[in-house]
Amino acid sequence: MQAMATTRHGRKLTVNRLVRAAIPVAAAIGVASLIARLRRAPTRSPLGDLRRPGSRPRVVVLGAGFGGLSAALGIARGSGDADVVLVDQHNYHLFTPLLYQVAVGLVDSNSITYPLRAVAYRNGIRFVLGEAQGFDVDGKRLLTSAGAIAYDYLVVAMGSVTNFYGLSEVAERALPLKTVGDADAIRNVVLGALELGDVERDADRRCRLLTFPIVGGGPTGLELAGALSALVGDVAGREYPGIRPEEISIQVLEAGGRVLDAMEPATQEIAMRRLRERGVEIRLNSPLSGVSGNDYLVGGGQRLEAEALIWAAGVRGSPLLERLPGQRTRDNRVLVDATLRIPDHQEIFVIGDSAACIPEPGARPLPGTAPVAIQQGTSVARNVRHLLRGEPASAFRYRHPGNLVALGRHAAVAEVLGLVVDGLPAWLLWRAVHLGWLTGLRNRLQVLLDWSLLYVAPRQTEWLRSATRLPPRIPGRRFTSVASERNSEANDSPLSK
Amino acid sequence: MQAMATTRHGRKLTVNRLVRAAIPVAAAIGVASLIARLRRAPTRSPLGDLRRPGSRPRVVVLGAGFGGLSAALGIARGSGDADVVLVDQHNYHLFTPLLYQVAVGLVDSNSITYPLRAVAYRNGIRFVLGEAQGFDVDGKRLLTSAGAIAYDYLVVAMGSVTNFYGLSEVAERALPLKTVGDADAIRNVVLGALELGDVERDADRRCRLLTFPIVGGGPTGLELAGALSALVGDVAGREYPGIRPEEISIQVLEAGGRVLDAMEPATQEIAMRRLRERGVEIRLNSPLSGVSGNDYLVGGGQRLEAEALIWAAGVRGSPLLERLPGQRTRDNRVLVDATLRIPDHQEIFVIGDSAACIPEPGARPLPGTAPVAIQQGTSVARNVRHLLRGEPASAFRYRHPGNLVALGRHAAVAEVLGLVVDGLPAWLLWRAVHLGWLTGLRNRLQVLLDWSLLYVAPRQTEWLRSATRLPPRIPGRRFTSVASERNSEANDSPLSK
Asked: Residue A330: CB partners within 8 Å, gap ≥ 6?
């Protein structure tokens, strides 16, 4: 395969023209590279010191999501007198707000992961790949699969796990959306259903394959529904000529009486209208209540037939948080004081989805969103620096920057500066904010390219069966079990003469 | 996670500056989009006709690699009087020459796959996702997992499978490099070994983890070795501070007395020298002969200790080819006549890796390379058009365009126009040729971006454990089985005080 070829598939674009087109890109990247290299001042990672008992105070940060990463970077950059150890079960930071776009093949999972080792190396942080397994609070040690790590201050930013509210049968079948693997699985299941639907002739099985229920009317559920409708619009009847767009049913099942519970009524209104315009069915007061045979049960006992059910209904604190001292909420988040610490263990901070931070007596805890986590991380970093200098810690104050929800192609809704903005301006704002907010130049350029190419190149509809396991209930039968003998196949192929 | 945030990780790059930088990119893409849309003339896929017995002749192409895709497109574009059905077990075309770059995290797997449904839709080809399961030669039907498909002409372009030369124990452990899943698996195993090596303190286990043997001194083996040495140079001692670059051993095991067997002696010379300069050990006359306990055996019985052994030693025709009539070579490729057809079945063409095409009596069969496959596909398309018009088929003549082998960063060797070119010019040529040769604008831009970003942004070292299974012999113990009780961990953690 390594030899040259002069013949190519696809449109004609000579090497010459390509090289000419590449020159300005290369030049721009060259300049950016120079700037980046001048800015970069790599610090040696303090591995040598950490192998021996350290003389400097050590801050251990558990979890490299928005909260943990923000805390670790804040401490490492702001203070030369502490060692920072960052522990995560993955060696990358995941930009979760774009996860739903991975699930519909809009951006690639690689574009929203950022290597933690690179971040650690540049900032003098020691990164440890390991799963947390417990807390030795008295001995001040974090127990992980990579060994015990002693700390002077511990920042717990473990995030959350999907909450199935005790519906174990649903949990076995439904597709959550928390990790890269989840997003890849949803993508493969959705594209797999289109592949199967394209050749399925039985009406009931077609209907079952082409019904995509999404449980949960929060931002994640709505954004996924909108993106899914755009995917369907792009490929049904064209790249999948056997599927008519109207055969596909995208449903949002919301247990309560309204979507986007925490936002303004005007925002809720707009979201419902925009999604309905795009063919999404929104079913209010429709909690998923269980499984019956092959079907799901909704609310009062209605049956719902579907292969791929996506779960975007809620999260709870990681089970491991039960091993921390102090109180927890019903959804297993740790109650923290105004400085984000456990009341009786002032050396332990808990932030982000792991924490229940009640801004004022009687108020609801702050939601598990990225802005809350990032601001808490920054606050912890500042307080750790204060504490190391013997100064008191100050209380955390949350500044709410607004809300943004994408609703499919060229549509979104935004709450900014007390206004509710709709349509294309909101959509452009959504994209600009998320692009600016992404970690790292590489990811920004990759996502920008992914988004732009949708207007030029075909959709990414590769069904990478080998890359992720399919859930057991998406049948592989069509592609694996047909016998190879000459006369055994049932004569139902649409293609046999 | 959907709300806005003003704080970000990483270097400061305001939304403003980003938007300014995006304008020229967006403008360029806009223009390209317009051109693309003007050029695109989508034809309806002939699904309706195919469900009924067709009145027009039907050409079925099995396999959408270089050969099959080139044949299908050639027939569909050149002839309005035949239906073309393209069958593949994946719904994407894979640009295999860059697969080794996926294995080292240089480019992303998404950048080298191209959705077949989009190609089919634009060219009036009917695409069927299915695995071939047999041939009903007398009834002129191809048997697939998606049903039987009747044909008037059949083009078999199934490619090849990895050849382990009967070493079944090796086959169970070694990592081949044929599919997207293979490349992702190698990437995860290599990065996993670095993660484990970074914290492993036992010298023997470190050595075992950090030894990367590559079996096969052909182009694939050498290109992978060169790319792996570049990866190691980028991250060892820096992002993986616990690993010194000299601890890592990259070895190429070649059974014969020279690498790049089919190329010029000068080329072989240059390849060996360049790779050795980059720290790659090249072991000639060192066939892998089997497995002994945990170790591999090389040649006369030398033991080789390694976790991740990569297999790039050869291919053979798919086992299914045995069900075709006619003769086959020892490596299970189908012997074809001068027009690339099976002598006694002139309606069946066999091309690419599936075919043994002997250009003149006594000569060796043409190699299984992309240029051979593409030129054969073009030849088949021309001959099918002739045959449909009642004209005779003409003989296939191969024009060898030269050879190109990449040898790590800024190094390659090229055989062009009778010259052997070395160093940076060869490397630039390699990149230009492969970029131009890639399928589709999206993939070209993505790969260009991936390549360029290496000079600006950190390496992609995300170890996506959830995305692919690890082979059983890479132990997960470090990350899963350490007990969580307070006192149970052996006091060997480098991090405990």
From this structure: none
Buried b (16+ CB within 10 A) or exposed e, B410-421: ebbbbbeeeebb
Which residues make Cβ contacts (< 8 Å) with residue B362, sequence separation at least 6?
none
The three state secondary structure string of B132-158 is EEEEECCCCEEEECCEEEECCEEEECC
B117 touches chain A (CB under 8 A): yes
User: Going by C-beta distance under 8 Å and a sequence separation of 6 or more, which residues neighbour residue A104?
Assistant: A187, A190, A224, A227, A228, A230, A231
Active site residue B223: yes
B349 touches chain A (CB under 8 A): no
**Tokens 């040649």 — which residue?**
B299
Taking Cα atoms as reference points, which of B153, B149, B146, B126 lies closest to residue B136?
A: B149
- DSSP character at residue A274: H
Residue position matching structure tokens 């160093």: B423
pLDDT digits (tens, 9 = 90+) for A189-240: 999 999 989 888 899 999 999 999 999 999 999 999 999 999 999 999 999 9
List the domains of chain A with CATH numbers.
Answer: 47-89+130-162+316-388 (3.50.50.60), 168-313+402-453 (3.50.50.100)
Residues A294, A300, A301: CA angle, nearest 5 degrees = 25
Interface test with A, best of B2, B29, B444 (most A CBs within 10 A): B2
Chain A touched by B245 (CB under 8 Å): no
Do B15 and A432 lie within an 8 Å CB cutoff?
Answer: yes
Read off the tokens for A203: 């009406």
- Give yes or no for a contact between A496 and B481, defined as CB atoms under 8 angstroms apart: no
Say yes or no to pLDDT of B22 above 70: no
What are the chain A neighbours of B59 within 8 Å (beta carbons)?
Answer: none
Interface contact B115-A461, CB threshold 8 A: yes
Instruction: Give CA separation, B73 vs B120, B122, B492, in Å.
Output: 9, 10, 61
Query: Distance between CA B259 and CA A429 in Å, rounded?
Result: 56
Of A117, A143, A444, the CB nearest to B489: A143
Q: Of chain B residues 365-404, which have a CB less than 8 A from chain A?
A: 369-371, 374-375, 378, 400-404
Cross-chain residue pair B3–A371, CB shorter than 8 Å: yes
Q: Compute the distance between CA of residue B228 and CA of residue B232 in angstroms, rounded to an integer.
A: 6
- What one-character-per-residue DSSP string does A200-228 give? ---HHHHHHHTEEEEE--SHHHHHHHHHH
CA dihedral defined by A197, A199, A203, A207, rounded to 10 degrees? Answer: 0
| 3-state SS, residue A368 | coil
Q: Is B229 helix (H, G, I), strand (E, B) or coil?
A: helix
How confident is the model over A10-69, as pLDDT tens digits?
333 344 444 454 555 555 555 555 455 444 444 433 444 444 456 789 999 999 999 999
Catalytic residue among B195, B200, B223, B307: B223
Q: Answer whether residue A348 shows pLDDT above 90.
A: yes
Rg over CA atoms, chain B:
25
Helix/strand/coil for B295: strand
pLDDT in tens, B231-290: 999 999 999 988 999 999 999 999 999 999 989 999 999 999 999 999 999 999 999 999
Among A26, A433, A439, the residue with its CB nearest the CB of B4 is: A433
> Which of B5, B6, B453 lies nearest to residue A445, judging by beta carbons?
B453
Preferred mutation among B34, B43, B107, B117 to probe A, highest tally of A CBs within 10 A: B117
| 3 state SS of A162 | strand
Three-state DSSP at B105 gives: coil
Query: Is 60 exceeded by the pLDDT of residue A451?
Result: yes
For residue A202, give every residue at least 6 positions away whose Cβ sits within 8 Å of its Cβ, in sequence order, or none: none
Judge whether residue B471 has pLDDT over 60.
Answer: no
Beta strand B280-283 with B249-253 is parallel
